[in-house]
Amino acid sequence: MRKKDILGKLAKNPEMIFTHSIKKLNNDEYSAFIHFLTNSKAMFVESMGKQVQWAGAEYKILTYLSIKEKWSLSTYYAPDNEILFWYFDISKKNFVDEQGMPCIDDIYLDLAVLPNGQIITLDADELKEALDNGTVSKKDFNNAYITHDLIINSKLVEVKFLKELSSKMRLNYE
Questions:
Q1: Element (H, E) at 168
Q2: Region 45-58: what's the mean pLDDT?
Q3: Residue 42, φ and ψ in degrees, nearest 5
């Protein structure tokens, strides 16, 4: 597993210039709002054969993390506040580290939900490789897929629900 703080790889990348705010919602829930500044490097991800920008000047990410769950959810916004996609990081566990930073024990497998409702499973190859090289156990491998299936078979992947949740979460930062 990879310990990943709620800011993920962004905090370690000098080309990603951003501001952020992390809030404790209640005893076991956190949210973070990340706002990329005008001199941030543009970052892209391939989706359905196209390059989709997810970071750069004025792009935003809103992340929700609960200590009770084995996933975190991020909403990615374009500069015009249009939702680009939702992203689930599946974890072995979520926790708060010694510095008070909300974190996940990332277990490689991820899900993306597009505004058109398409659900994409990501990084299954990384999870399989981690199993093969002993980085994750067979139990953790299976639990990642159990969490994956629980998410897919729940309202968590319904676009209407995701839009409402993202809207409520944004109210914390506006």
A1: helix 159-170
A2: 83
A3: -70, 135
- Whole-angstrom Cα distance, residue 78 to residue 26? 28
Q: What is the largest CA-CA distance in the chain?
A: 45
Beta bridge partners, 116, equal none
The angle at the Cα of 160, spanning 115 to 174, to the nearest 5 degrees, equals 85
Looking at the DSSP bridge assignments, the partners of residue 72 are 65, 89
Parallel/antiparallel/unpaired status of strands 2-5 and 102-113: antiparallel
Query: d(Cα 1, Cα 113) in Å, to the nearest integer?
Result: 23
What pLDDT digit, counting tens, does each position of 62-94 carry?
A: 999 999 999 999 999 999 999 999 999 999 999
Q: In this structure, what token pair is assigned to residue 147? A: 């969490």
CA atoms within 13 A on the CB side of 127: 23
83 to each of 62, 71, 86, 87, 146, how far by Cα in Å?
A: 10, 20, 8, 11, 27
Amino acid at 145: Y
Q: Rounded to whole angstroms, how far apart are CA atoms 102 and 94?
A: 7
The torsion angle over the Cα atoms of residues 39, 110, 52 and 86, rounded to 10 degrees, is: -80
Task: Identify the helix (H) or strand (E) that includes residue 163.
Answer: helix 159-170
Q: Which residues make Cβ contacts (< 8 Å) with residue 86, sequence separation at least 6?
A: 73, 74, 75, 76, 112, 113, 162, 166
Domains and CATH numbers, the chain: 2-170 (2.40.380.10)
